[in-house]
Amino acid sequence: MDIRGNWHNLTWEPAPPDVALLYAWSGGEERCRDVVMHHRHRTRYALRRKPDNAVEAYLEHDHPQGWCRQLAGRFGVPPVQRFRLACASHAAGLPTPQPLACGRAGAETIALYAVPPDPVRGDVAWRRVRDVPAARQALLDALEAFASQPQVADRFHSVQLCHLLVGGSAEAPSVQFATGWSLMPRWGLPLADLRLQVARHEAPWLNPLVSGLLQYDREMVDRASLGNGEWAWHMRTEDGRWHLRQGIDPLLPEAAVRMHRNLVRNAPDELVKNDRKRRVSKVAVAGTYYAVKEFTAPGPWGPFAPDRRSYVANWRLELSGFDVPRYLGWLRHREGQGYLVMEWIDGTLLGKALEAAPPEGRAALAQATLALFQALYARDIAHQDMKAQNIIVEAKAGAPRLWLIDNDAVRFGQRITQAHWRRNVRQLRETMPQDAALLQALDAVFAPFMG
Predict the structure, then answer these.
(1) What is the dihedral sign for C-alpha 167, 170, 171, 175?
(2) Strand-pair partners of 57
(3) Digit-coded pLDDT (tens) for 275-316
């Protein structure tokens, strides 16, 4: 049924809401509505009032797709549970919007929540202030106060920035949950989503919270990077199935893949890499260079497919704060190939940078490489292909910046031993220019850690 046109027939609890709010949602003239979040199973609206056009309520519309979700929705289990939990949480003093009413008809449900005047979604608020030091610190302080509440830290896992509302002024912001969708408890993974998104911005108060988390929960990162959500979304085109970074114009990676395929057919000598399993090219789209990596036969191996493993591993490394190229998209082509489209990193391969550097420069590069190894191992991450060709040195003032550019063979949650050190150092030495002074500079730095 069309629930928007038949809201007067809904079964409400605890009581029907203000009729004017429902007119706002269903297209009445008294108020207007904005879509603040949408995917195939759920839409969230901000309902505004005239004449000042200020937001006064959020309406969450569950419209499940597929027989399994529709069956659960028909019995009212997930959305009604969320609303009842929101009522209990608000009564207990948790920072939640005030629940107004929940109505259900068939498999569809709507829930209304009163919100502060003109709230801003958490991820939008962060983008607005992250480059303004004072406002950025004020928002981080507000997030700290929010995250430090025992009920939040101990119970709730779905604390993505997009599930939070930020109100107040830039100097004194306040943070609360957006709707009942944020309040489904899951024990054992406290505040993981929020930490993932903010930890890489070096908030000092997050250090104790993040200490055990930078080996990210695999299920959560897979879900967020492979599905429609805060980080990525997917779509189907005539070429195949795309997974795209949020905010990326789909035409950009599509054009990059077409240019790569044209190079493979007409100018294979211009490829950066061309072997039996993988091809890499450098292409220019709208004046910007991108790298396209092709997996010629990734196979139908689900989570074990190399293109999928590389895509998810790169997301996990990026969210852990490592310097890796940003992936714009991953395409599983209808002809079977896998394509990863990523930023092109300008710089020098580690081996060539060490070879060209003066003695003091070599020592600094060797120390930076050691710091990269230590950062990976501290997070229980084992890179099984640590070749000099897989690290790019970006010249900048101060310490050199190292980029990991090939992350097909990264393993997370490993028990790091001396064998990992020896293997990675051996891989590095074997792929370096075989210059005695260069290798001696490396050995001088790494020897104390070799056991």
Answers:
(1) positive
(2) 47, 114
(3) 888 999 999 998 999 999 999 888 766 677 889 889 988 888
1 lies in some domain? no
Q: What does 296-357 look like in DSSP terms, one character per residue?
A: S---S-GGG-HHHHHHHHHHHHHHTT---PPEEEEEEETTS-EEEEEEPPPSEEHHHHHHHS
- Do 249 and 321 share a structural domain? yes
Q: Are residues 238 and 263 in the same domain?
A: yes
Sequence-distant contacts of 101-104: CB under 8 A, at least 24 apart: 101/12, 101/13, 101/14, 101/15, 101/16, 101/17, 102/12, 102/13, 103/7, 103/10, 103/11, 103/12, 103/13, 103/16, 104/10, 104/11, 104/76, 104/79, 104/80
The residue segments making up the domain with residue 333 are 223-343
Amino acid symbol at 255: A
How confident is residue 4, by pLDDT bands cut at 50, 70 and 90? Answer: low
pLDDT value of position 78: 64
d(CA 220, CA 218): 5
233-236: Cβ within 8 A, 24+ apart = none
Which of the four pLDDT bands, split at 50, 70 and 90, describes residue 195? very low
pLDDT 10s digits, 19-78? 666 666 655 544 566 777 776 777 878 787 666 666 778 888 888 766 665 565 555 456
SS3 of residue 379 by DSSP: coil
Cα angle value 21/83/233 (rounded, 5°): 85
The owner of tokens 């852990």 is 320
At residue 168, the 3 state secondary structure works out as strand
Q: Determine the average pLDDT of the residues in 362-367.
A: 88
Domain boundary among 213, 232, 262: 213
Question: Of the ranges 100-114, 163-177, 192-206, 257-271, which is most confident?
Answer: 257-271
Q: Choose the final residue of a domain: 59, 94, 114.
A: 114
* Residue 451 falls inside a structural domain: no
**166 and 152 part of one domain:** yes
Beta bridge partners, 278, equal 295
Shared domain check, 437 and 393: yes
Note the Cα 42 to chain centre separation in Å: 20
* Single-letter code of the amino acid located at 94: L
Strands 173-177 and 164-168: antiparallel
Comparing CA positions, the residue from 410, 418, 375 lying closest to residue 390 is: 410
Q: Domain check: are 336 and 401 in the same one?
A: no
- At which residue do the structure tokens 């929540």 appear? 113
**Rounded to an integer, what distance in angstroms lies between the CA atom of residue 216 and that of residue 320?**
8
